[in-house]
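Re: the 475-residue chain
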Amino acid sequence: MAEQALWTIDELVAATGGALRGHVAAPLTGVSIDSRSVTKGDIFAAIKGDRVDGHDYAHVALAGGAGLAIVSRPTEAMQAAGPLLIVDDVLKALEKMGLWARARSKARIIAVTGSVGKTSTKEMLRLALSASGYTHASVASFNNHWGVPLTLARMPADTAYGVFEIGMNHAGEITPLVKMVRPHIAVITTVVASHLGHFGSVAEIADAKAEIFLGVEPDGRAVLNRDNEYFERLSAAAVAAGIETVVGFGRAAAAEARLEKSALHADCSCITATILGEPVIYKLGMPGEHMVLNSLAALTAVKLAGADLARAGLALAGALPAKGRGVQSLLRAPGGRILLIDESYNANPVSVRAALALLKRAEPGKSGRRIAVLGDMLELGDQAATLHAELAGAVDEAKVDVLYASGPLMAHLWDKTPPYRRGAYADKSDGLAPALLGGLKAGDVVMVKGSLGSRMGPLVDAIKGQFSPAEKDGR
């Protein structure tokens, strides 16, 4: 059976207004902007980024199996490699593809934003909705000016449910993206101090997140964190945008999606909740109280989308943390095992506290220790020094035995750390590696956390490079 085309060439020309040069022989089955990940039949969009221009790799993508390249500056090498669709601006063409894909879709669409928990909630929704029908969702954290239109352009016409993550670090960024997505349901996970360097207050962050309501379809719904201090502000913004149904989730008695009780374990959580009047008991494959609340948001959106809530709850047992967001790895060490918790993708004061709570819940082995490895939380503006120093209480509450810290901002936490808890400090993350790798031993639980720009991910890789994977039975 021939593979079904994601795009016909006629649709593509109509959507972009481009001029076709050459003959498209194979079905166009995907869309890519990275020549390294091109598969047979992909449409390669040669976007010009801050550091890399896709035009330099268009011929490589075509040689690697792409069925067509969208370019604005064709060359002889490209034309020799395969068919081209020539447009004035490749990113604008990708946006037009996204708008076309959205217009032809009959899917129920959900958009997710928030200061923390966007990707985890999006992944829960992908899993939960897949139990009721074909679900298309953003890959990784494709939530910006190219990630959103790319995700739309990749959405098959017969999709039942679409889940889109929308991010921002400046006011005004969400509005054009949500107007492309046009969701039926908008979810804001929470609003906390994140990207404060670009805002005067957390209230301004809430207002920027509320831009998600501006693209919601008529008769759409909003799902908000009832426990968050900005619930009323966000709810008022939703109503002002014409959204009549606002649903709160959380622990609060007023929440329509309410957490009744939860049992938090090191590697999962067991939850009893009421979702819009329907009781549900389920297991969540991700640990952490913050993940429990994210799962309430996900199930609320599932219910509002008309999908099967019971099947969705069962599906969440298979939920796993995304890369850098709490992934746990067992590693072999002389005499036993080390548990590594990778939280290296990003960080703000709330997410660091959540990661420390996760570390507290993990039980070290015999003679093992709880070890926190923390890098700078970035984009916190004038409050950065204070917010880092204030983590001292959370480190103490988590019963951290040893702290490793890197970066000029984490120095403020380091200064408040008692000598008995100090492992090592370095100006940059790579400076921690010798002391950290030399200090780990069997029984330790080590959690690594920091903003992406503080480069804590390489430390995770270094730990995995030194200690080989261990089986759960201890081998």
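The chain has three domains: 9-88, 105-318, 327-466.
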